[in-house]
Amino acid sequence: MKKASVRKGALVRFWVVIAAIIAVFCATIGGLAGSIRQGLDLQGGTHIVMQAEDTEQNQVTQEAMTQVIGIMQKRINEMGLTEPIIQQEGANRIIIELPGEKDPQRAIETIGKTAVLEFKDEEGRTALTGEDLKDAKEQMDQGKNPVVALEFTDEGGDKFAALTEANIGRHIGIYLDGEMLTNPVVNEAITGGRAVITGQRTLDEAKDLAILLRSGALPVKMTVMEVRTVGPSLGQDSKDKSVMAFSIGLTLVVLFMLAVYRMAGFVADVALLVYVLILLGILYGLSATLTLPSIAGIILSIGMAVDANILIFERFKEEIKAGKILRLAVQAGFKRAFTTIFDANMTVIITSAILFFLGSGTVKGFAFTLGLGVAVSMFTAITVSRTLLMLLIDASWIHNPWWFGGKRGYDR
After folding, report:
1. How does strand 117-120 pair with strand 173-176?
2. Are residues 52 and 30 part of one domain?
3. pTM
4. I need a labelling partner for 349 at 20 to 30 A (CA). Which of 13, 153, 267, 322 fits?
5. Is residue 382, in this structure, part of any structural domain at all?
6. How many CB atoms lie under 10 A from the CB of residue 198?
7. Maximum CA pair distance of the chain?
8. CA–CA separation, 185 vs 170, rounded Å?
9. What is the enclosing helix (H) or strand (E) of 111?
10. How far is 167 from 121, CA to CA, in rounded Å?
11. Domain end: 214, 239, 259, which one?
């Protein structure tokens, strides 16, 4: 009676775990897949390539390119676009991808205006530009009020002192991209190359203004080299085909495992659901961007995800032929197949790493999802599949090895 109770408990635990995995998969797969950031080829949007030009005053250096990327990132965010992608290509080019942006001209004009920062008197005459500003930081003054502290270059400090001395009691407007940021009244001449802008309601507001001020001028001249727009219909078509390919690939793998390995294949299929959830969860957690090549890597990794299970099950069948009981055969199958599984998967991971570090942007996406998928598949095959199979065997519900991929007629 005690053994029967233990077996019944194991069987209940097995089906409870199976039901829980399937329920979680069905409840979360749609929202999880939809929440992962999508690239232009799936969502549609604008692709812009800009090139930095060397001039006598400003040389194109890595430091300058890094600064340009930072400035553009801040300006593009001001457009209200979600999840822009800005990355350097080569020594002097920058690729800008704006998912969801349908008007490339608007995007170009906004990016192009980032170099205009002006200090004007009431007559509208420009006395200083962004080139005269060295730094701007948000801080709290002695009265615990948020302010923006400005620091000018030596030449800019002299210009600002002359400007304030000539405009005591009058307004000085600070403009960025032609729009007024602030219009303070000058109380006295300001010397020393430093100034403070008051009137900000919160420290966050002061921080935003400081960011705008200190990122107002690009260090090098940027020229638009390429503009490409991916329409929403084309992006949706690519997305629909990717979803179909993913569904077909997953379905065929599931059916193949059921047909060849029966109950063991069913366990592998359930582990495959866990694999998909973990993989998508990691991609979401890393804020990865899905593109067509990266989806291709995921689809390919689905087929490779059951490779470990196939190696284990084939080894398991050999152990059954050698006369071992089901429990010992399963344990031996996992133990003896592990080295082969590890070696095979590591070669793929190493290849993916090489492609990721040496390849271009699209190749990087494919390599990353493929390598990540193989690593996750090792975990699910060795832990999830093993745990479910041992629960099934502990239940002593199925005795015939045929249900585990072996030959019919053997009952131990």
Report:
1. antiparallel
2. no
3. 0.64
4. 267
5. yes
6. 13
7. 103
8. 5
9. helix 104-112
10. 8
11. 214
- Please give the Cα distance from 106 to 86 (Å, whole number): 17
pLDDT at 410: 47
Q: How many residues does the chain have?
A: 412
Q: Which two tokens stand for residue 310?
A: 């196939």
Helices (H) and strands (E) in the chain, counts: 12, 13
Helix extents (H) in 215-325: 232-285, 292-305, 307-321
Cβ atoms of 158 and 191 within 8 Å: the answer is no
What gap in Å lies between CA 224 and CA 230, rounded to an integer?
A: 17
Does 222 map to a domain?
A: no
Q: What are phi and psi of 292, to 5 degrees?
A: -60, -45
How many domains, the chain? 3
User: Is residue 281 domain-resident?
Assistant: yes
- Residue 256's identity, in one-letter code, is F
70/91 same-domain check? yes
Closest CA to 183 of 117, 120, 137, 133: 120
Q: What gap in Å lies between CA 61 and CA 71, rounded to an integer?
A: 15
Same domain, 109 and 122: no
The pLDDT of residue 7: 67
Per-residue model confidence as pLDDT tens for the chain (412 residues): 455 666 677 778 888 888 999 999 999 988 888 788 777 777 777 888 888 887 776 778 888 888 888 878 776 775 555 567 788 888 888 888 887 777 777 677 667 555 567 888 888 888 888 778 788 788 888 888 888 888 888 888 888 889 888 999 899 887 776 778 778 888 888 888 887 777 778 887 777 677 667 666 677 778 888 888 777 666 677 778 878 887 888 888 889 888 888 888 898 889 889 998 999 999 888 878 788 888 888 888 887 778 888 888 888 888 777 777 777 877 887 888 888 888 888 998 999 999 888 876 678 888 899 999 989 988 888 888 888 888 888 777 766 777 766 665 444 4
CA distance 128 to 117: 8
Contact 32, 280 (CB under 8 A): yes
Residues contacting residue 277 through CB under 8 Å, at least 6 positions apart: 24, 25, 28, 29, 32
97: domain range? 43-114
Co-location of 95 and 193 in the same domain: no
Q: Tell me, yes or no, whether 370 and 397 share the same domain.
A: yes
Q: Which of 83, 114, 145 is the last residue of a domain?
A: 114
Do 133 and 60 belong to one domain? no
